[in-house]
Amino acid sequence: MSRRVLVIEDNRDLAELVSLHLGDLGCEVRLAADGMTGFRQAQASHFDAIILDLMLPGMEGLELCQRLRAQKRYVPILMLTAKSTEVDRVVGLEIGADDYITKPFSMPELMARVKAVFRRIEGLAKPEGESSKEITAGDLVIDVGKHAVTISGEPVDLTAKEFALLAHFAMNPGQVYTRSQLLDLVWGYSHAGYEHTVNSHINRLRSKIERKPTRPRYVLTVWGVGYKFNDQFKRSLLPGPA
Hints:
About 40% of the residues lie in helices and about 20% in strands. The chain is an alpha/beta fold. It folds into 2 domains: about 5-125, 3-Layer(aba) Sandwich (Rossmann fold), CATH 3.40.50.2300; about 125-240, Arc Repressor Mutant, subunit A. A 5-stranded parallel β-sheet has the order 2-1-3-4-5, with helices on both faces. Strands 9-8-7-6-12 form a 5-stranded antiparallel β-sheet, covered by helices on one side. The chain has a two-stranded antiparallel sheet with strand order 10-11. Helix 7 crosses helix 8.
């Protein structure tokens, strides 16, 4: 299946090189050389992934990523950054980038990251080979195929990472995960030293799904280890609506 990828990068030579390699993966590629043009293209068309440079004319990558994440339509974002400081990488992940890679990078590494993003999205969309699943735990319902969550019938607005964390926990109730394991499982590979990114996502997730976030019912802290989904809820996978 052909994938559509938007590359927002002001270095023309690099953008065309990335486009060439994505073409070898069977992707249809569109290019944008500045932030505003990239944002307009992202709004106007559907893309399966966006490769986004951090430093862009017109609108910087962090602002562009934040604006895209404020919209209901979800698209995976892989951020390119020439900055190597921890704060730049963490901020990118915090505001919703699915992955990042620091310049200079090799094309095989970038393509591996792109393929990993596609695999993670496919895995969430079709768990265990089925087109749609619902996970129920008390009054919490997670529609994995539609990336939708409700509490007592009321919709809950989650970011892509918040949803991925919740779905992974709910599919494995009682299983305890360290922060490093969650970075590897949900973000796709180990971001050594960024375990606090997991903490902030868990806190935001709790603020949206828990009646009392300081006394959570669903996502529990296992002190000195990590987190788990409350194992009092028996996993219930039901066929989603056709």
